[in-house]
Design goal:
Elements lengths: L3 E4 L3 H13 L3 E7 L6 H5 L2 E6 L10 H11 L3 E3 L9 H9 L3 E2 L4 H8 L1 H11 L6 E2 L6 H11 L3 E5 L8 E4 L5 H16 L4 E5 L4 E10 L5 E13 L2 E7 L6 H17 L4 E10 L9 E7 L6 H8 L3 H9 L16 E8 L1 E2 L5 E2 L2 E2 L2 E3 L9 E6 L6 E2 L6 E9 L2 H13 L2 E3 L5 H9 L1 H4 L7 H4 L1 H5 L6 H12 L24 E8 L2 E9 L5 E5 L8 E4 L5 E4 L2 E6 L2 E6 L16 E3 L4 E6 L6 E2 L4 E7 L2 E6 L4 E6 L5 E2 L4 E5 L12
Parallel strand pairs: 1-2, 1-4, 2-3, 4-5
Antiparallel strand pairs: 6-9, 7-8, 7-9, 10-11, 10-13, 11-12, 12-15, 13-14, 15-22, 16-17, 18-21, 19-23, 20-22, 24-25, 25-26, 26-27, 28-29, 29-30, 31-38, 32-34, 32-37, 33-36, 34-35, 36-38
């Protein structure tokens, strides 16, 4: 076993590797960029090395700096985590050339599976079923469009390099192929440095089921059963589970055998995942699954496999990379119970899952789970940390395990309802709604489920009068929340003949809310909300609600939903009058990748105006209303959250619009 390893990653996966290494007595070296100087993974590691500025291209993708850090610190091996350099065979070659060990597969194995088109040709030779499509080298648009017609619409354009849904577009009609291809190529080039694509038949009711495989350097390979990752938005996984719901013995046998066959075909060593697309239109059948790709690394969703098999896959990685044989043979690996993983992201589900930034002023995870269930939280952040625009906006992975799927689902819903995040828009309400969706609960899940149910899954009911009253009560106290059982006792003051009242104001979205707060002799707080906001008008509050107060704001938690109110400073100058009335602002920090309109153009509501690249994804910004463009951001410009992207000519006596 190694005595010291360097972790060439950040965030929750770096913290995850550190925990196992610490348990095994292995010392760890973290690397960090400027943005991560105070991060949790830096604090947890035994030592840390600075590798460059915040952008990934100047830090976490700088293999030379990472190798130099490993050599200078005396590390014997490098663990890549996932993403960044984890599937870069050139980096593996460089690591090995310096005498260090790469904790993962060989460069040859990564190359064999790194390009989707070549991997599928290899799998066809190995006898593994492959999705019908074009996996050739030629990339002329005329040829690709011709192949799409031969395959039959709808088709899926996929970047041949990388993964995570980037560079992927579904195309329903031949007229849309050219535009979708251009968009997929741009995104693939930005994410992976390779704009080549393949074209495949789009399966009507696709299930995404993958098999965890593990190999060693002695020719052994096993599987650790399957995971279902069909719950996806924008081709990115949201909730994963193991085992797959509705899995039949015949399909499991066929899939796991194919997965092990695929791993052995490339002499695979280490943790890997064979991803299959399954046609679930007629149920799960052994002849209706096809190889999609192999991820030659540890997956984000590996904890659900660990929960149902009782293994530590990071420990296996360290043991195999240090020269040991696989810890278990196939017959020793058994399934036990059911597990779910929910990815908690800083994103706005109601706005098409736009990534968000912000400071995590309040972060609280559940302390308990239902009887018979267990839980683990995988995170790389703490309260007070910032969600940076430079990296993936994941806050945490909430993982639960129970004896069966219904019990695990109950645990998932309960723990999501107890998770509290304030300071950034988060997707906990969406995750809870998905976990409660009737089709999801029934196990009738395919990759299109979220898109079909998106509105009910992302709609959030407005706050009740009780929630608004609680927010007003919290906002009325200018100091910090006291720790006593009576947190707002300072409101009571003294009055000889009658209770004193205090006025306060709040904003929730566009709503301006006035409230009058008084304290009853029995200790209850009476909150009267100004009409017409609340028909009840008056609320008596005794219990302390679940809430967080942070600079200028109050967030009240109701289940998995966090309602955030602005508590205006009456002395601050209002900027409303100065705001650009006919403008369109950036919903997040990013790069203006492409501009599709010009000054003086007359545009219609919904017309694409520009493409903003943020969080490694492309986001199309459309016109919020009809109008004439007065100014538009320059292509290639870097913008921050709220930057004016487009300014419209103001029409006389016309109401202006803003937003996306």
């Amino acid at each position: 076993m190694f005595s010291k390893i360097l972790i060439a990653n950040r965030g929750e996966i770096a913290c995850r590797v550190i925990r196992t290494a610490r348990r095994l007595g292995v010392h760890t070296v973290a690397v960090y960029s400027d943005a991560d100087a105070q991060s949790l993974h830096v604090e947890m590691a035994d030592e840390a090395v600075h590798i460059g500025p915040s952008p990934v291209g100047e830090s976490y993708l700088r293999g030379d700096r990472i190798i130099a850090a490993a050599l200078s610190s005396g590390a014997q091996a490098i663990h890549p985590g996932y993403g960044f350099l984890s599937e870069n065979p050139d980096f593996v070659d460089q690591v090995v050339a310096t005498g260090l060990t790469f904790i993962g597969p060989s460069a040859a194995s990564i190359r064999a599976m790194g390009l989707k088109d070549a991997a599928k040709r290899l799998m066809e030779k190995a006898g593994v079923p492959v999705v019908p499509g074009y996996h050739g080298e030629a990339q002329e648009i005329v040829l690709l469009a011709s192949k799409a017609r031969e395959i039959g619409y709808p088709v899926l354009i996929k970047a041949r390099a990388g993964g995570g849904g980037k560079g992927m577009r579904r195309v329903e009609h031949p007229d849309d192929f050219s535009e979708a291809l251009s968009s997929a190529r741009r995104e693939a080039k930005a994410a992976f440095g390779d704009d080549r694509v393949l074209v495949e038949k789009y399966v009507d009711k696709p299930r995404h089921i993958e098999v965890q495989v593990f190999g060693d350097n002695f020719g052994n390979a096993v599987h650790l059963y399957e995971r279902d990752c069909s719950a996806q938005r924008r081709h990115q996984k949201v909730i994963e589970e193991a085992p797959a719901p509705g899995m039949t013995p015949a399909l499991r046998k066929a899939m796991t055998e194919a997965a092990v066959k695929a791993a052995k075909a490339i002499n695979y060593s280490g943790a890997g995942t064979i991803e299959f697309i399954v046609d679930a239109s007629q149920g799960l059948k052994a002849d209706r699954f096809w190889f999609m790709e192999m991820n030659t690394r540890l997956q984000v969703e590996h904890p659900v496999t660990e929960m149902v098999t009782g293994t530590d896959l990071v420990e296996w990685q360290l043991r195999v990379a240090s020269g040991e044989k696989l810890p278990k043979e196939q017959g020793e690996i058994a399934l036990n119970g059911h597990a779910f993983e929910a990815r908690i992201y800083a994103e706005d589900a109601a706005k098409g899952f736009l990534p968000a930034t912000g400071t995590l002023h309040h972060l609280k995870f559940p302390q308990a789970v239902p009887e018979g269930a267990s839980m683990r939280i995988e995170t790389g952040v703490r309260a007070g940390d910032a969600i940076s625009p430079y990296y993936d906006p994941m806050i945490a992975k909430l993982v639960v395990h129970a004896k069966d799927r219904p019990a695990a689902l109950e645990a998932l819903g309960t723990t999501l309802s107890q998770t509290e995040v304030a300071g950034s828009t988060v997707n906990t309400a969406f995750l809870a709604a998905l976990a409660a969706d009737p089709d999801f609960r029934a196990g009738d899940v395919d990759t299109g489920l979220i898109a079909r149910h998106q509105q009910p899954l992302t709609d959030v009911a407005p706050p009740t009068g009780e929630i608004v009253a609680a927010a007003a009560l919290a906002a009325s106290d200018a100091g910090s929340l006291p720790s006593s059982n009576d947190p707002w006792s300072s409101l009571a003051g003294y009055a000889h003949f009658h209770g004193m009242a205090r006025r306060t104001r709040l904003k929730f979205g566009e709503d301006d809310i006035g409230a009058r707060i008084s304290v009853r002799p029995d200790g209850r707080f009476q909150v009267a909300l100004d009409a017409p906001y609340d028909n009840t008008n008056s609320h008596d509050l005794r219990a302390i609600p679940r809430l967080a107060r942070w600079p200028g704001h109050v967030t009240v938690f109701d289940g998995a939903v966090g309602y955030t109110f602005t508590a205006p400073d009456p002395l601050a100058r209002s900027d409303d009058a100065a705001a650009a009335s006919g403008s369109l602002r950036a919903p997040m920090p990013g790069l203006v990748k492409l501009v599709r309109a010009a000054k003086g153009d007359v545009v219609a509501r919904g017309q694409p105006l520009l493409i903003l690249e943020a969080m490694k994804m492309e986001h199309t910004i459309t016109a919020p209303h009809d109008g004439t463009i007065a100014e538009i951001a320059a292509e290639g410009s870097q913008v921050s959250d709220g930057t004016v992207l487009v300014r419209f000519v103001e029409e006389p006596n016309a109401s202006s619009g803003a937003g996306v």
